[in-house]
């Protein structure tokens, strides 16, 4: 199959999946992003993501993960997906590349909102210490200000992935290979209390206890942690002891790609107090392409 056929097929799959959610999907809007990264599509792991978050219910996101010697920021910038300015978010990926071993990359875009994020994955098992990340001049100072929190829960040397949201101007810091005590119910409640967000409901607490990783969202505008999310993987999200809402459940039941592949489930609480879920279903599942064990998660 040629790259052009690959791109066309993916566009069709996005249109079909958006239709399940009654979300408008214009090929003219999604094709430029896919075309910019077209050389990576045939070997990429590709997932579609839907959330119950109130401010994102009218969106279907696509995540493309690839291992290749490529400059994802340079491509996005040259195509106008990321506006050039003097905000430190524009320097963060370069700082990461200079100081950390990057094994693979990813991008996120929405069928409605367009290009959103770039991900930098560290090699499998080569977790990075918070101290190295905190040294980066472009990293939000919230990471340093909350160092004591991360140390108390044994997370100081377990960073497997960094996600950069260029339009929201936030950073997701993902932790893998969690200490067992992090998944104790009281520890989960304590983490939520310490960062000033509501404790998870009983149903969310049960899902969090089954997680393989978690992430925190930081911004340049506040020293507070903006969001906490636990990530789980399952063949059947409906087997979890939670209700995701009819919108997500209909999507999972009717999504016809990668039916037998695992699904990623994220349970999150925002600083606003909103509790929500996100499900990532795979259009193409290729676990060897990127380091899933350390962190394909996220928001």
TrEMBL record:
Source taxon at top rank: Bacteria
Keyword Lipoprotein among record annotations: no
Stored SUPFAM superfamilies: Prenyltransferase-like (SSF143492)
Keywords: Prenyltransferase, Transferase
GO MF entries: prenyltransferase activity
Pfam families attached to this UniProt entry: PTase_Orf2
InterPro entries: ABBA, Prenyltransferase_CloQ, PrenylTrfase-like_sf
Family: Belongs to the aromatic prenyltransferase family.
Identification of the protein by name: Aromatic prenyltransferase Orf2
Organism: Actinopolyspora mzabensis
